[in-house]
């Protein structure tokens, strides 16, 4: 995978796995922040209030450094870790997978639990639409009106997304482009007379 792309899911998806009358319902959700994770956990814990366990794992950010696995009362390492393992083996991020377990009366043992949580998470991922997104960066700058054509030529050729533009005494523009293409865009904009970058 290149440095400036990452894979995530487009919309919530579900998977169900049953083992010895225990039912595992896995819900995969696209998330961007820990706040979103917390809100979803609250929602699903209320929705499945009668379930024995609601274990989960999440991964955030294009660098995939912000993650957490939670066993929610299951034996340590039998639930959150296998769920996180599925997120990792599919190289996903900006994702939360919650697996709700309804206990069927027969104990599965630790290896049985690991298999079940892993399988349920895999089902939810299999049901999801996975997309590759680019890691984007934004650049904001000011320039004088007469230089408009020069700026627009760069924009037309480099094809960044225009997030904002205003034309007062000074013109201001905010552009977003894929991280790997930003150096070239900035280098071309630097050549435009009167143009100055706003440092974020």
Radius of gyration: 23 Å
Query: How many strand elements?
Result: 11
Structural class: alpha+beta
Question: Counting H and I runs of at least 4 residues, what is the number of helices?
Answer: 5
Mean pLDDT reading: 94
Q: What is the percentage of strand-forming residues? A: 35-45%
| Head-to-tail CA distance between termini | 28 Å
Indicate the low-confidence ranges by residue numbers.
Answer: none
- The ordered string of helix (H) and strand (E) elements is EEEHEEHEHEEHEEHE
Major sheet details: 5 strands, antiparallel
Describe the structure.
With 200 residues, the chain is of the alpha+beta class. 32% of the residues lie in helices and 38% in strands. It contains 5 helices and 11 strands; from the N terminus they run βββαββαβαββαββαβ. Strands 2-3-6-4-5 form a 5-stranded antiparallel beta sheet, sandwiched between helices. A 4-stranded antiparallel beta sheet has the order 9-10-8-11, with helices on one face. Strands 1-7 form a two-stranded antiparallel sheet. α2 runs parallel beside α3 and α4 packs antiparallel against α5. The longest helix has 19 residues. The chain starts with a strand and ends with a strand. The mean pLDDT is 94.
């Amino acid at each position: 995978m290149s440095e400036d792309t990452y894979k995530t899911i487009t919309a919530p998806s579900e998977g169900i796995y049953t083992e010895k009358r225990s039912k595992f319902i896995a819900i995969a959700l696209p998330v961007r922040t820990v706040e979103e994770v917390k809100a979803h956990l609250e929602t699903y814990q209320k929705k499945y209030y009668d379930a024995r366990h609601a274990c989960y794992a999440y991964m955030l950010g294009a660098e995939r450094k912000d993650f957490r696995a939670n066993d929610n009362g299951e034996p340590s390492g039998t639930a959150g870790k296998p769920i996180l393992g599925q997120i990792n083996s599919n190289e996903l991020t900006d994702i939360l997978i919650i697996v709700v377990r309804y206990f069927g009366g027969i104990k599965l043992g630790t290896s049985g639990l690991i298999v079940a949580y892993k399988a349920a998470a895999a089902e939810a991922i299999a049901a999801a639409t996975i997309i590759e997104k680019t890691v984007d960066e934004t650049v904001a700058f000011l320039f004088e009106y007469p230089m408009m054509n020069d700026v627009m030529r760069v924009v037309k050729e480099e094809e960044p997304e225009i997030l904002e533009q205003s034309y007062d005494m000074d013109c201001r523009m905010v552009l977003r482009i894929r991280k790997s293409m930003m150096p070239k865009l900035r280098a071309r904009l630097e050549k435009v007379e009167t143009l100055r970058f706003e440092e974020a």
